Amino acid sequence: MGGRQVLLLLPGLSGLSYGLAGSIGAFVVGGLYLLLSAATVYGSVQLFRGRDARLLQVVGLVLVAVWLVNLVLAVVLVGTVDVLSVLLLVLAVGVVVTTRRPEVRAFAA
């Protein structure tokens, strides 16, 4: 992995560091965010090399679910719309939609 790809792991590492300072539940959630970040980087590299888009599609769908749950929890528990969750949800939906386009599938085939 190059230097730029490692920077994409920072959100997951940040979540993991919050878990280290807190409870075991926060640690597990941070570890899952780190795993999703690493899978996103690996799937992106595979797609850019023209090898396969399936991993990025699956991770994109998981991230859609994660950010949708975050958004619902923000609205239900706090009563406000979490702008970051909305932006990340839109980004995850964009990844899923883009990787399903015929030209992307042809490139990755």
TrEMBL record:
Q: Which domain of life is it from?
A: Bacteria
For this protein, the parts annotated as crossing the membrane are 31-48, 55-77, 83-99
Q: Which UniProt keywords apply?
A: Membrane, Transmembrane, Transmembrane helix
Write the protein's name: Integral membrane protein
